[in-house]
Structure formats: C-alpha cells, structure tokens
Amino acid sequence: MSKFEWQSIIKTNIFILRVVGLWPEGTEGYKLNLYTLYSLCMNLLVDGSNFFQSAYIFVIYADLQALAAIIFVIFTDWLASVKVLYFVRNTAILKQQMTELESALFQPRTKQQNLLGPGIKSWRLIYGSFSVLVVGTLLLWTFFPILDGTVKEHRLPFWAWYPYDAHTAPLYQITYLYQVVSIWFLAIANVNMDTLIAALMVFTATQCDILCDNLKHLRGEDFNERLLQCIEHHKKIVRYGGFYLEVSVMADILYFRFASNCNRFFNEIALGQFFTSSASLALAMFQLTLVAPLSSECYSLLFYVGSMTTQIFLYCWFGNEVEVRVSA
C-alpha cells in the first residue's frame, strides 16, 4: 500500500505561507535565522501600514460617514495581523500536527482513499472561490484611484495619516506602493491561514470517516488487535488525553491528540473572526448604500462583502462537518 501524503493536499497553502514568512523549514517552529528575520520585517511592515491607517481615525473621527468608509478595512487588517501573530506563536503545534498526520495510524488504506474525495473536493472549491473574491477585491482597491481618476489628485488607495506629505512626488508613489504591498501581503496570508484551518477540519472529519470504515470491517482472526487499533485511533482523533513526554535520545517530544491540538490552534482565531467579520460586514453594507451604483467603489465593496461572507462560511461549513462526524 502506497503512503498517502496528507501534506500534498495543502502544498499550495504551504508554499504561499512560506513566501509570506509564515512557514519555516523543518518540523519545528521559528529559530534564530534569516527566515525569522524576514518574517519579522514583513510583519513590522504590515503593522506599520495598519498603524498609519488607524491614526487617520483621529483626523476624521467627527465625520461618521468618512469613519464608516475606512473602519471596516481597519478592522479586517488588524484582525489579520493578530491572526498572523497567533499563527507564528503556534507554528510548532501546527508542524507537529502535520507530522502526526503522516503516522501509520492516520494512513487510509487504498480503498479508503475514496472516502477523502468529497471533503477535499469541497475544500478546494471553496479555496478557489475565496481566492478569486479576495484577489478581485485587492485589484479593485489597488487600482481604485486610477479607475475613478483621483490618481491625478494624488489620492492613495487607503486613507491614512503619515508624518510627511504623502501627496507630493516621489513620496506619493512610494507610499502608494507601500500600501499596496502591505494589503496584498496581509490578504494573501489571511486567505491561506483560513483555508489551512479549514483543511485541518477536513482532515479531522476524514479521519472520523476512516475510523467508521475500520469499525465496519472488523472481522477475522485479528479482530481484537484491529479493535484496539480503532480505539487508539479514536483517542488520537477526538479525545483530549492531556499530554505526556516520551524521552528519546535526541529530544523530548510533546505528544497531543489531533483534534484537540487543532482546537488549541484556531480557538481564539475563530472567535475573533466571527466578531470582527460581522462588524465589518455590517459597516461595508452600510457603505454600499452611500456609494454610487456600478462605480468602482461599489464593485470593490461587493467583492469585499463576498470575501468576508466566504471567510465566515469556511468556519461554519467545515466546523459543522467535523461536528456531524464526531457526534455520529
């Protein structure tokens, strides 16, 4: 039986996360090396852009319409930045999950690989749809000053306060590029973090399907042995058994249950996502009532609303799939 490569399903996520500084080499977390320095610099770059946009609130706080026009983007950006920091902090746990998936107990038999198809197909479809909506939103935001002609007035893609005159050349061009690079970096990281979390949910659900299939085919002389394997498989999937230390010659290895580790990884992320996305959606839809129909700003808001709706849908749909499998 050929070994099933779980990580091959999310190889696109892993590649993009590595590009944006969120997936260090090896099976451990971040170390003192150039990649960690690169990741730190990129995050400081993005957080700086968020800070300057947030500072603009104090300039226009009395104008509620102008405030509503920018605050939903600021909410989204800061949530994404917090998610990046949380992702970095829990990289070691995530790497451990990926290693655990490749163990023999989590391997599907050749016939069982058909059970993986529906969940993985749904995940890939939503990943593609989510990416298209986000890229569409980013393109409209990037070229918004060009599309509505305000680039001649040196308008930036996002309102922000800077300690210099950002509307004179060449500072305008540099600031324009800075905003574009920051928002693309943050959005791409956000998409791939969310879809990776969804993939973990799919993996948990498919492991439950594999366990159910193993239980259905319990027969023969090795019944007791296979039953014990199913019990151990069940414990590793869903039950939180704490953790214990296995002392080896090389190192001490922390061992956790798979689903529990997934929960530890994205628990707070999901809570913040629902709260912030709901508020951002409400503000964006309010802003839709104020802009001219069929304008470039209207289209960007429509794509943004679609992106945020899909983002919430990811957690709801795949979380429900896990709940159904676990309670079955």
From TrEMBL:
The keyword Cell inner membrane does not apply. GO terms for biological process: signal transduction. InterPro entries: 7tm6_olfct_rcpt (IPR004117). It is a multi-pass membrane protein. GO terms for molecular function: odorant binding; olfactory receptor activity. GO terms for cellular component: plasma membrane. The chain crosses the membrane at residues 35-61, 67-88, 125-147, 171-191, 274-295, 301-318. The keyword Membrane applies. It is found in: Cell membrane. Pfam families: 7tm_6. Keywords: Cell membrane, Membrane, Olfaction, Receptor, Sensory transduction, Transducer, Transmembrane, Transmembrane helix. This is Odorant receptor.
